[in-house]
Amino acid sequence: MDTLYLVIPCYNEEEVLPETSKRLLEKMEGLIERQKISENSRIVFVDDGSKDKTWELISALHQENPLCSGVKLARNRGHQNALLAGLMTVKEHCDMAISLDADLQDDIDVIDQFVEKYYEGCDVVYGVRSARETDTFFKRTTAEGFYKVMKSLGVDIVNNHADYRLLSKRALEGLAEFKEVNLFLRGIVPLIGYKSAVVTYERHERFAGESKYPLKKMLSFAFDGITSFSVKPIQMITSLGVLIFAVGMLYLLYAVIALIAGWSLAVWTPVFISLWVIGGLQLAAIGLVGQYVGKAYMETKHRPRFIIETFLNK
Ligand code: UDP
Ligand code: MG
Fold this sequence. Notes:
Elements: E1 4-10, H1 17-33, E2 42-47, H2 54-64, E3 68-72, H3 79-90, E4 96-99, H4 111-119, E5 124-129, H5 137-152, E6 161-168, H6 169-176, H7 185-192, E7 196-201, H8 215-229, H9 232-261, H10 269-300
Parallel strand pairs: 1-2, 1-4, 2-3, 5-7
Antiparallel strand pairs: 4-6, 5-6
Helix pairs in contact: 9-10
The protein binds uridine-5'-diphosphate and magnesium ion.
Magnesium ion binds next to loops.
């Protein structure tokens, strides 16, 4: 039997923690009883620099039940960093880790399926929301639009998958190779590789407390996702510049022919041509500089160039 660690980032979650811990303990005890996971398994709450009683609650839980553990960050670093901190802390101790939110919006009954998939040989199991009925119309459409934009920019991302997923120990080790500071985990995980599976579930509403992701944070998160994974926007600028330059050149050609043939030309012709030729050149040049900046940017991430799955060698 393998050891499962649940990793739960918590920021000001005193309202949900008592209920969350109760439900998760039931789940874990059930899994241990049915011998699906080892009794060394743990629920790890990561306190992301909360200002309320979150840490007191976590330490009390740890005192009461050895299944509950806690990690406290020195200050608030945001959901993605808190999650990574938790995963990196537990990776030495577990065979698999599942990350989930403290509000249990993600159905915890699919943990059984996650674990099954793991035993079937998957290193990554993505939790995917089947319906978004509990989300507001606004959140649903913006989220769907976001996944479309990411896909069209060439980013490998799983539709409607947030951060509810299982990672095996070696997938966690793979994740540790990604040293980037602007964290967008759902973009990084597909880059690790290994065999993966998808498990669908229905997302519930938050049962207490309020969302720690206001619109502003959501937008900056989405922007982070795009700019951390794609240099396509820069390429688009280059193409646009080339296009504008080409229009200017075509008009220049037309003007020369017109001059030779003796056709009449509008008085603003030279202005139009110089505007489009120079404007297009400038835009293309900026885009070109951007391409180098983009390359340098990707280099600074020091992403692993490969992760080896097996090495057969007699
Ligand atoms: N969270 C965190 N640090 C933050 C903000 C949020 O650790 O700075 C945690 C939060 O406690 C929760 C998870 O991230 O466990 C997801 O947050 P929330 O449920 O508020 O987001 P939503 O479901 O509304 O997108
Ligand atoms: Mg939530």
